[in-house]
From TrEMBL:
Pathway: Carbohydrate biosynthesis
One CC-aspect GO term: cytosol
Molecular function (Gene Ontology), one example: triose-phosphate isomerase activity
Native source organism of the sequence: Oldenlandia corymbosa var. corymbosa
Subunit structure: Homodimer.
Gene Ontology biological-process annotations: gluconeogenesis; glyceraldehyde-3-phosphate biosynthetic process; glycerol catabolic process; glycolytic process
Family: Belongs to the triosephosphate isomerase family.
InterPro entries in the cross-refs: Aldolase_TIM, TIM_sf, TrioseP_Isoase_bac/euk, Triosephosphate_isomerase, Triosephosphate_isomerase_AS
Protein name (record): OLC1v1007626C1
Highest rank taxon of the organism: Eukaryota
Keywords annotated in UniProt: Isomerase
Length: 254
């Protein structure tokens, strides 16, 4: 079964309403491969979700960058999965390393969130990835397997899940993983899914790479067999994001 190439743009905590309108304008004007060949999802900050939803072309989808772990209520400052569904937002990014490291989100908490978001009908981009210290001590696979296990325990239907491998040392640093490094972890993650979830889920789940992806390095990464797309930070705020979307064509020729 073919895995449709997936390109996500994580805008993080960036942008004014004028800047957001400008980004949407160049996204709307871009000529990109058909939605049969590439799935594009952009993730603005919560406060701009409605604005982007009103303006964005219909072949691109929208993701929130987080949501609360369970049903809404007395949780000041949080946004619930139900609210996202109510706004017509189909996707949410969960377990991003910036939230794990800066806001102390644990594997268990991320797993709970993934489970709850899925039960509410959201599709989830679930993020995993090791720090530089963990990589250098040789524990990359143990770390990403433990993160994936906590997530997998809460998933009964994988068709609404994309797994994002984002090595922390590559995020926002300009230090991209080499295509071989990305392929190695992606193929290990697919093997983990094969052994712990099942062969069909392993074959059909998109595993995307994030960490300093840009217009210049995306094609080489996209050419790797287990790289099914990207989660892009900084470069998703710039027109080179279109080149990253177009790197999906590399798959058709391989
Ligand atoms: O964290 C990321 C996407 O979620 C990657 O960020 P950069 O592309 O800015 O390194």
């Amino acid at each position: 079964m073919g895995r449709k190439f997936f390109v996500g743009g994580n805008w993080k905590c960036n942008g004014t309403s004028d800047e957001v309108k400008k980004i949407v304008t160049w996204l709307n004007e871009a000529e990109v491969p058909s939605e049969d060949d590439v799935e594009v999802v952009v993730s603005p900050p919560f406060v701009f979700l409605s604005l982007v939803k009103t303006l964005l072309r219909s072949d691109f989808a929208i993701a929130a960058q987080n949501c609360w772990v369970r049903k809404g209520g007395a949780f000041t400052g949080e946004i619930s999965a139900e609210m996202l569904i109510n706004l017509g937002i189909p996707w949410v990014i969960l377990g991003h390393s910036e939230r794990r490291l800066l806001l102390n989100e644990t594997n268990e908490f991320v797993g709970d969130k993934v489970g709850y978001a899925l039960t509410q009908g959201l599709k989830v981009i679930a993020c995993v990835g090791e720090t530089l210290e963990q990589r250098e001590s040789g524990s990359t696979m143990a770390v990403v397997a433990a993160q994936t296990k906590s997530i997998a325990e809460h998933i009964s239907n994988w068709s609404n899940v994309v797994l994002a491998y984002e090595p922390v040392w590559a995020i926002g640093t300009g230090k991209v993983a080499t295509p071989a490094q990305a392929q190695e972890v992606h193929s290990e993650l697919r093997k983990w899914l094969h052994e712990n979830v099942g062969p069909e889920v392993a074959a059909s789940t998109r595993i995307i790479y994030g960490g300093s992806v840009n217009g210049a390095n995306c094609k080489e990464l996209a050419a790797k067999p287990d790289v099914d797309g990207f989660l892009v930070g900084g470069a998703s705020l710039k027109p080179e994001f279109i080149d990253i979307i177009k790197s999906s064509t590399v798959k058709k020729s391989t």
